[in-house]
C-alpha cells in the first residue's frame, strides 16, 4: 500500500500536522525524574487520537479522543491511518488495543457531514480515506483488539469488526452494528464482507437488511463481539487477551491472519477506483442527500 504520498497531500490540504513534522513525537512521553530508570513507554498524540506504546510488552494503547462522538471525519481517518502506519513500522510494536476516551461512545461511524452537500472531489477524497483506514487495519500484521467501551454504529462497528478480537462493555445501552440501511444508504461490499467473515452469512444478511444496532448482550449472542465484561475491567481484559495472542510466534499468526483475510482485502485493492466512483455516484444522488439530511435532523430532534 503506497499511501504515503496520498496521505501527505491530504494532510497538507486538511491542515492536520503530520506526525513527522511535529516536535519529535516519541519525546512527548512524560519525562522521568533523574536517577530513575526510563519507563519503556513511548507516546504520541495528535488532535483526535492518542497512542501509547509499552515497549516492554510490545503493546500500544490507541484511544480515540474526538468529541462529541468520535465521528470518522476526513481528519480523523487521516490521523488514524498515520497512527496505524507508525505502529506497523515500529519493530517494538506487536499489538494494538483500540478504545475511546469519550464516555459511552466508541465511535459514531463515518462523519455524516462529510457526506452531505460537498463536491465530487471531496467525496472521492473522503472515500479513499475510509478505504485506506480499513486496508491498514484489516490488513495489519499486528494483533488488534477492540475494547468497545460505548456505542459503535456503522463505521465504528467496522473498526471493531476489522480487529482480531472484540471485547465490549456489558452495558445493554451500548449497541453495535452496521445500521446503514436505517440512514437510507448501503453498506459497501467490503463492510459486508468484513461483517460476514465475523458473524456468517445469514446473521449478516438479516442484520444488514434491517440496519440493526444490537445491544451488547445480543451482539455477544450473534458472535459480533467475542466477550462482554464490566466496563471497569475492559482494558485489563483486553491486555490479558492481547498477551494470549502475543504468546504465539508472530510469523505463524501473521501468515494465518493474512490467509484468512487476503481474498477480501484483494477484492477492494483490485476495485478501489471503481468503488470510489460508485460511492460518489451514490452519495451525490439528491434522494440520498435528502435521506442523510433527514437522518441528521432526526438525531438533533432526539436531543430536544
Ligand atoms: C451501491 C453502494 C455503493 C457504494 C457505497 C455507498 C454508500 C455507503 C456510504 C456510507 C457508509 C456509511 C457508514 C457510516 O458510518 S454512516 C454513519 C452512521 N452513524 C450513525 O448512524 C450514528 C448516529 N449517531 C447516533 O446514533 C448517536 O449520535 C450516538 C449513539 C453515536 C451518540 O448519541 P448521544 O445521544 O450521546 O449524542 P448525540 O446528541 O446524538 O450526538 C452528538 C452530536 O454529534 C452529532 N453526530 C452524531 N453522530 C454523528 C455522525 N456519525 N456524523 C456526524 N455527526 C454526528 C449529532 O448530530 C450531535 O450534533 P449536535 O450536537 O446536535 O450538533
UniProtKB/TrEMBL annotation:
GO BP term, pick one: fatty acid beta-oxidation
GO molecular function, one term: delta(3)-delta(2)-enoyl-CoA isomerase activity
Entry EC no(s): 5.3.3.8
Keywords: Acetylation, Fatty acid metabolism, Isomerase, Lipid metabolism, Mitochondrion, Transit peptide
Compartments where located: Mitochondrion matrix
Root EC class: isomerase
UniProt pathway annotation: Lipid metabolism; fatty acid beta-oxidation
Reaction(s) the record says it catalyses: a (3E)-enoyl-CoA = a 4-saturated (2E)-enoyl-CoA; (3Z)-dodecenoyl-CoA = (2E)-dodecenoyl-CoA; (3Z)-octenoyl-CoA = (2E)-octenoyl-CoA; (3Z)-hexenoyl-CoA = (2E)-hexenoyl-CoA
CDD domains cross-referenced by the UniProt entry: crotonase-like
Major site of localization recorded for this protein: mitochondrion
One cellular-component annotation, GO: mitochondrial matrix
Function: Key enzyme of fatty acid beta-oxidation. Able to isomerize both 3-cis (3Z) and 3-trans (3E) double bonds into the 2-trans (2E) form in a range of enoyl-CoA species, with a preference for (3Z)-enoyl-CoAs over (3E)-enoyl-CoAs. The catalytic efficiency of this enzyme is not affected by the fatty acyl chain length.
Subunit (UniProt): Homotrimer.
Family from the record: Belongs to the enoyl-CoA hydratase/isomerase family.
Name used for this protein in its record: Enoyl-CoA delta isomerase 1, mitochondrial
Organism expressing this protein natively: Lepidothrix coronata
Lineage: Eukaryota, Metazoa, Chordata, Craniata, Vertebrata
